[in-house]
Write a structure and sequence with these properties.
single chain; 14-stranded mixed beta sheet; 14 strands; about 30% helix
Length: about 375
Amino acid sequence: MELQSAVIKNNDRFMKTCILYEAINKNPIFDSYREFCKLVGQDAMEYPDFEFWYYRFYHKQHDFDYDRSADPVPKTIMDMPVSLMFKITENLDTVERTHLRTINKSLKDVVDSRSPVFDEIKITAYDKFLSWKLDDKSFCCEITDYGCSLRMPNLPEIKSDEYYLKKGMEYLSPVLKMPNIQINHLSLYITKESAYLNDFLPIPFHAKSVSISAFDINKSIELLSIMNPGELESIEFNIGGTITREIVLEFCDTEQFKQATNVKSTIFLNENELMKFSHLKTFKCSLTSQEPVDVQRIRDIISTFDKFESCKLKRTNYGNDLDIRTFARALETEIPFGPLKIITHRYRIPESNEYLEFKIEEKEYLFSIKIVKIR
C-alpha cells in the first residue's frame, strides 16, 4: 500500500486520475479530499489545488495538461486587509477566537494581538471525566469502553482510544496558555491526581478571583501559589480532611493570601490567628471548636482592622458548650425574656465615629456571627 501511494504521489497524471474518478462519480468534494489524502498522503496536494482540478473535471474539462500559470492567483483569507481581520475578531467571543487561532500562524498572530479576557473559567477533574466551562460554553471528555469521548459546543462528538485526561488536556491546555490571558474568576475542582494535571497552568496565572478545591492540601497550596499575587483579589479556599494549625499558617503565609482583599475558606481559626486577616476587606471562615469563644476579644481584634468591611464567622456547637445568652452578656447587650435565637449589637470603635454591628444567630449545632463595619 505504501509503495502504491508513493507511485501515485510522484506522478502528476496518476493524482489527477484519482481526482477525475471522484468528480465523475460526483462524490462530495470534502469526502473526496479526505479519501485522496488517505490514499496518497496528507502533503501530496493542498486543498485549493485539489478543489481546482475537482471542479474542472466535474464540469467535463478533462485536459490534464491545462496550464494554470495564466490564471489569476486565487485569493485566500490571508489576503484580507489586516484592519478587516481585526474587525472580524472583535465580533467573535473569546471562545470563538481560541478556535480561530488554531487555523494557521497568521490568524494566530492576529488573535494573540488582543488579550483574551474570560469572565469565568471552571475546570473540574474527576476519576471518570474532565470538564471545563469557558464563559457560557461547556466542554467534557469522559471515559468510555473504547477510550474516551470528547464533547464540544456546536461540533460532532469526538471518539478516541486515548486516555480521557490526555485527550481533554490537548484541547484545554492551548486555551490556558494563550498569551496574556486574563480571567475574572477561575474555579478549580481537582479530585483526581494525575501527571496530566501537573503544570497545566502557566506561571504566573492571571486571575482576579479564584476558587480552589483539590484532593489534598499540598495540591491546593500549589494551585494557589500559581496565581499572580497582587492581581488576585478574592480567594475561595476549600480544604477537606483534618485541618491543622500548620495548614492554617501555610495558607496565611502565601503571598496570594497576604495581598488579597477578600477570602472565603473552610479553615478553622483561633482568635490569635484572626490577626492574620487584618488586611482583608471581607472574609468568611470558621472558629475552631477546640477552644472557647471569646466574642469580646474577637470584637476588640476586628475593631483594629483599618480596611475591614464585613465578615462571617461560624462555630460548631456539637457539645452544647455555647449559649447565645453568654454572647449577649459578653457584648453587654440587652437580653430579652423568653426564647432567644438571634441577638444584634452595635459597638462604637474607640476614638472613632465608626461602629461594628454584630448579628449572632443560633442554628442547629451552629453559631453564625456576622460583623459589619458601619461608617
